Amino acid sequence: MKKFIVVIAGPTGIGKTNLSVFLAKKFNTEIISFDSRQFYKEISIGTNVPSKYFRKEVKHHFIQNISISNSYSIGKYEKDALKTIKKIHEKKNVIIMVGGSGLYLDAIIHGLDSFPKIKKKNELYEHYRINGIEYLKKKLKELDENYYDKVDTNNPQRLIRAIEVCIASDKTYSSYLTHTKKKRKFDVIKIILQEERNILYERINHRVDKMIKKGLIHEVSKNTKYRKYNSLNTIGYKEIFEYLDGNQSLLGAVEKIKRNTRRYAKRQITWFKKYKSNSLFTKRDKKKILNFILEKMKNQF
Questions:
Q1: Angle at the Cα of 190 from the Cα atoms of 73 and 161, rounded to 5 degrees
Q2: Model confidence over 57-100: pLDDT tens digits?
Q3: Are 59 and 27 a contacting pair, CB within 8 Å?
Q4: Position 117 in a domain
């Protein structure tokens, strides 16, 4: 029997979780997350992890599976996820993958490029701590302007990684990006969720308000000891830290979370545009999506 991965992707707040659980039940299978914000045990409200009810209904993998204090690279995720996929495929023909972290999805369905092994340069982290992210941006632009134009320049971990490779190898980081797709032992069916921009933004704003009511401020405050870790340098947490530090009003922090989440959703929409347009649906198209998947599977045999 052929093995399949059904990917449910799209921007934050679009309705991926409900659809993934619906499909997992239909195919009597399990769910693998490729949402890098949901890996951490200590945080759940700001990352909007699937509810305990959903996780009881359907087995989820890579949800709150590690601690904030643990280092967890995209390469490690690729290895762990492929092992999990192989194990599930021994008893199931279909697996549902769901999330919004495009790089993590690409690592699974296409594979990662190979980079030289290098020692981490702690001085880069120290420069970042003292001089801020602008130092990293300037340094990367000097070393590899091509990659600088593509990378998320607000992600210090990716900037530092690219700079480390440039310095250690005396080559540009982008020279290692061959984009050679690796062969996988499964077929991939992609479902990309979309929505009118104004409706999506309303959902995002409403969800942020719900997070505050559910206790986001308390969740952030009890994780203050972890704030130096990059996993907490993310939307919903860095803004509340500003509020707790007295550098921002609560109203101002909430508005910044909404604005930054909308911007993040916009970047996700741009990322997933590279996938074929015939896989675009709204969360209301459950029956159409199911029929689309079944038809795709039938055509693969």
A1: 20
A2: 999 999 999 999 888 888 899 999 999 999 999 999 999 999 99
A3: no
A4: no
Confidence of residue 179 (pLDDT cuts 50, 70, 90): low
Distance CA 226, CA 42 (A): 10
Q: Are residues 68 and 189 in the same domain?
A: yes
**Spatial separation of the C-alpha atoms in residues 21 and 96, rounded to whole Å:** 9
Pair of tokens at residue 144: 């590899």
Q: Last residue of a domain, which of 154, 176, 198?
A: 176
Helix or strand (DSSP H, E) at 289:
helix 286-300
Residue with tokens 């390469």: 75
- Residues 170 and 262 occupy one common structural domain: no
Which of 176, 197, 217 represents a domain boundary (last residue)? 176
For the stretch 38-77, what's the b/e string if a residue is b when 16 or more beta carbons lie within 10 angstroms of its beta carbon?
Answer: bbbebbbbbbbbbeeebeeebebbbbbebebeeebebeeb
Q: Is 270 in a helix, a strand, or coil?
A: helix
CA–CA distance, 201 with 220 (Å, rounded to integer): 24
The DSSP result for 58-118, as a single string, is S-EESSS-B-TTS---HHHHHHHHHHHHHHHHTT-SEEEEEES-HHHHHHHHT-PPP----
- Cβ(98)–Cβ(31) below 8 Å: yes
Q: Give me the number of domains the chain comprises.
A: 2
Cα-Cα end-to-end distance for the chain: 9
Element housing 193 (H / E): strand 187-193
Q: What pLDDT does 73 receive?
A: 84
Please choose, from the candidates 289, 272, 293, 280, the residue with its C-alpha nearest in 3D space to the C-alpha of residue 5.
293
Buried b (16+ CB within 10 A) or exposed e, 182-211: eeeebeebbbbbbbeeeebbebbbeebeeb
Q: Please choose, from the candidates 175, 167, 180, 120, the residue with its C-alpha nearest in 3D space to the C-alpha of residue 140.
A: 167
